[in-house]
Amino acid sequence: MSTHLKALAKRTNPKTISVFPLKGSMLLSGCELPLNIFEPRYLNMIDDALKTDRLIGMLQPLADAHENPQQSEMNTVGGLGRIVQFAETEDGRYMVVLKGLKRFRMIETADMPTPYLQAHISFDEFQNDIDVHDKVTMPEAFNTEKSERSALIMAMKSYAKTLGVQLDWNSMKEIGLNRLVDQAAMISPFGVEDKQSLLEAKTHSERRRLLIGLMHLHSDTDLYSQSSSNDDNGPTLQ
């Protein structure tokens, strides 16, 4: 986070952007999203972005959308990102990292002669997103109520156990609460609807409460499924 990113997010207001539709992927302000690009049309999109403003919009298709979704099959709220890292592999893939600037709402798809989707967008609802980029000089863990952070960590530990993943809990102590919420929301393997709800949360408090609820919900569901499977087939991981 930096004053540079806040200034960049504030002055970056394109009316039309290139859109990368990707289920289960969301981009929140101030966070980084790594992408492995291999489809020709999206390689083309990255090439064009690198020649201009390096901006890409991430948008989720609806859960039941086709491979090439139309506007009616797309969620309308997404995240605008700037390419901050780029590398090309020997087999022609692009390894890209997007830095989230702010969210947007798609108004309509743009009739443009490109193999990838472009859309007309608006930032009117998300002007406060730029405040995420304010520089924090000390870990927020020291000035946030412990109960809020404890509730989140408890939910994360339960969900991580269900998924069978190991996390470095000590390193999380240095991450501010709001940033921890956003990063956890982005990497958690929820479905399209749940991810979209997290993306569209109006405040970090709302997103934190929703995230905690989803983690407990999916932990309970998955653990019940494991218990039922264990009766006949032995231990399983969802």
What does this structure look like?
With 238 residues, the chain is of the alpha+beta class. 39% of the residues lie in helices and 21% in strands. β5 (94-109) and β6 form a beta hairpin. The longest helix is centred in the C-terminal third of the chain and has 30 residues, at 204-233.
Attribute tags:
Archaeosine Trna-guanine Transglycosylase, Chain: A, domain 4; alpha+beta; five-stranded mixed β-barrel; disordered C terminus; 238 residues; 2 domains; 7 helices
Largest sheet: 5 strands, mixed, barrel
> In DSSP terms, counting alpha (H) and pi (I) runs of 4 or more, how many helices?
7
Distance between the first and last residues' Cα? 35 Å
* CATH fold descriptor of the largest domain: Archaeosine Trna-guanine Transglycosylase, Chain: A, domain 4
Brief overview, please?
By secondary structure, the chain is α+β, with helices and mostly antiparallel strands.
How would you summarize the topology of this molecule?
Blueprint: H1 3-11, E1 16-21, E2 32-37, H2 40-51, E3 55-59, E4 77-88, E5 94-109, E6 118-122, H3 146-163, H4 169-172, H5 177-187, H6 192-200, H7 204-233
Helix pairs in contact: 3-7, 5-7, 6-7
